[in-house]
Amino acid sequence: MLFAVIVGCEIGFWLLVGAGLACRYLLRRRRASTVLLAAVPVLDLVLLVATVADLLARHAVAGPQHGLAAVYLGGTVVFGRGMVRWADRWFAYRFAGGPRPPKLPKSGPVRARYEWREWGKAVLAGAIAAALLGLMALVLGDLHRSAALLSWLPRIGLVLAIWLIWPLTTVPGALRGAGGPAAEPDERDGRSQCATNPERGDRSGSR
Question: Residues 49-75: pLDDT tens digits?
Answer without folding.
Answer: 999 888 888 777 889 999 999 999 999
